[in-house]
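The instructor's notes for this session suggest beginning with a concrete chain rather than abstract definitions. Hand out the sequence below and ask the class to guess, before any prediction is shown, which regions might be ordered.
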Amino acid sequence: MDGVPRMPDVSRVPDVPRVPEQRRPESAGEPPANLSFSVLGPVRARRGEETLATGSPQQRALLAALLLREGRTATAAELIDAVWGEDPPSQALAALRTYASRLRKVLGAGVLVSESGGYAVRGLAAGALDLTRAQDLAAEAEKARGAGDLCHARDLLGSALARWDGEALAGVPGPYAEAQRVRLEEWRLQLLESRLDMDLEQGCHAEAVSELTALTAAHPLRERLRELLMLALYRSGRQAEALAVYADTRRLLAEELGVDPRPGLRDLQQRILQADPGLAEPSAPVAEPPATPVRPAQLPASVPDFTGRASFVAELGEVLASAEGRVMAVSAVAGIGGVGKTTLAVHVAHAARPAFPDGQLYVDLQGAGPRAAEPVTVLGAFLRALGTADSAIPESLEERAALYRSVLSGRRVLVLLDNARDAAQVRPLLPGTEGCAALVTSRVRMVDLAGAHLVDLDVMSPEEALALFTKIVGEERVASERKAALDVVAACGFLPLAIRIAASRLAARRTWTVSVLAAKLADERRRLDELQAGDLAVKATFELGYGALDAAQARAFRLLGLADGPDISLSAAAAVLDLPPDDTEDVLESLVDTSLLESAAPGRYRFHDLVRLYARACAERDEQPPGEREAALSRLLDFCLATAARVYAIERPGDRLVDHLEATAHPGLDFTDRKAARDWLYTEANCLLALVQQSADRTGSLRRAIDLLWAALDISESGANSREYEATARALLRSAQRLGVPGTEARARMTLAHAHVDGGRFDQADQEAEKVIRLAHEADDLLPVCWARNARGIIALYQNRNADGEEHLSEAIQHFRTLGDRPGEASALCNLSRIHLATGLTQSAVTLAQQGMEIYDAMGNSMRGANGRYALGMALTQSGELNAAAERLLEALEVFRESRQRLWEGMTLFRLAEVDIAGHRYAQAAGNAEMALTVLRGIGGEWRRGNVLTVLGHALTGIGQLGRAQVCWREALHIYEELDASEAAAVRELLRPVEAA
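After discussion, reveal the predicted structure:
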């Protein structure tokens, strides 16, 4: 048996358990306007938005009994039995009539009717009862699942489950209500199991673990939930925990019921032990709705004027057509820049699409540029395009490549890898499975790409070149000047890109003749000679377009090409060019029209990598005075530093860092609110890091580059660019060391220390911070001293050096006060609170954290105020004020999520789990700890992961999942031992009873 082991009761969406005599008779009269009822929670009646008074518990019991019969008449005897059971009061019938009369007044005429000595609720509009709507949604989900539309079925079940508002018939007395509560709760659990089953079929394993952990704690004897949890853990790479769940289940069933697990659960255990490949994927391919990216269609548009290359098209098409019977078909097209490799590959790929019905993937690997795309990043994008959830994508290149091949197994997908640097970049991106194929373009011949069919693409033949030129310019203009046209394509060296540029220019200038263009090209003999000399061929081709620009366009082309980064915003380009934004947009759009610049998105522009190289060469050759190149990059750095400082000031009102940054000539952008500021920072993250790296080797810009990285520290804390942030900080430090200026080196080391703390590398962070203090004192630069002292204080806490931590933080507080940096003082107070917490000074810890939070709040610093609430929540937890602790931490969590601070979001979930454990809410603790593990994936470092695993183990112990708890503790112990962390001793103690047994 492959895939998800199923129980018969969840192979389809479960039906609602109905009362045997229920039916839906035709309603009499018009349905009451806007009248609705709820039974999946407290029994309520509403008229529009108004909640109606439904009276005493017994009166609500009467209403519930009538609603659940869906229009059928219930006799007075049946209703008395439903409300009071076998021991009704002596005046039960009179009381029943009183309740009915009161309800009739509340609900209005024609709703509660008397009939044949009994009562009924009639004439309700469709969907007026929440239970009826839930039934309809469940039925629709069953149909959608049967039709293979699993996404829609999941959404429908989610909507059905959302109808519940706590316990069904909450607070309603009587045996009838009790029986219906049991029935409805069982149905709810069946719907949950069915929805979770679909979650696993769609690969949402990691997300399901947290919910299933809580559900198994609440319903420990429900084997299907245990089965789903085992499978979710196994697919999340947590095999030992999956097996521990089985051991826990077997022990619990034996202790509570004296029985063994059912066969399906035992079979799953054996399959996990055997690493059954069938468990790695859903039991059968699930047809996804067209909107989901399971069948990607990423090929760029084929050019409408594709010309010639017939032999290459046939050759490549034949190789791709053979993919069905081969392990993998790979064709590698090589040639100089501008020879038409991408155009040919895209054309062939489009022609081959019918042979690859499961999709086509495309990526520009940017191999010709200074920063080629990393295979690990490309694999992440491919996996997402193939429908893999972010949480299911592993971190390492090897794991991503393995998952990529697994996802492609059994599919027929074409992968177009454009502009590759070398074979090493390509290998991890190859499908490796029968039925798939890869088409690669590169400027180098990939002789070391095993098994590849190599194609060397040369320039066009004269006939093909003339045909391409004619298609672009027009038959009429070329026919009358055929010789001049042949001169043009010959001058272009028959290079397709050069021909396309020349023809496009001519087509856009109706006053030019072909002879005029030929004469212009004839003047470029030296450049045309260079066309045949390797990489200079592309440069020479672009000379035609560059020569047609006016002075303003040419200057913009040269200067914009100087900046590193994937693209550039309109406002950043305006800074480079020292022009108003409107004028900048005009010149940039005119460059887009010339095809020398691309519009990546509204307000964003980018160069093709080869065009960027050519633009830089033009700047080196033509820009006068030569210092203008440095001035343009300096203006860009000023703009970015000033804007990043504005973002920092908006996020942290009152923080004095912005007063200690290098002065800038550019004022930076203005923002209307925090969201706009935050969006700018994260949108520009890659460009900012590229600019900082580029500025590292320019002595006059180094200090500003360091300050820019410091002001943009949220890029590191968000987790999205933490690795790149660290690499950039290292580059700055190397440059600062070469420069030998203590103050500059101190600031560079501070950015690196910050990156190390975020990554959990505390020894390295402490070493850097120690050097910061020494160097900053030499430079009489107090701000880095404050930050370094604060950092060393929290690092000492993490390393259980509490006396050192108190000394550092006390110094930091005094320094921040000297500078008048109130938010800095608040940060150090909150960190000192944690030191006092660790040394048993709980009340002092609460006081310090409260002081820090109040400073933040007084300055309107909501994001760092969340850090204050985090520290206060920890202190309140230890003081036993659990409700207040949870409130502070939940307030912090909301801010961290809004601010995209994944590190702090994950750590706050971890602290909430600690609060839950202290309050004996173990299932909730396990859910929060699981979410913390998911959020902290890839950020925060292994020490923090070990802490979360330890707490998760305590939570699992509290809900009786002892085996799984031990797996978590063993993993935590391994982490602590690898780090030589003191926490290892406590975890060994947790495991000692198990090992002794």
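Then share the key points. The two ends are 36 Å apart (CA to CA). The chain has a mean pLDDT of 85.
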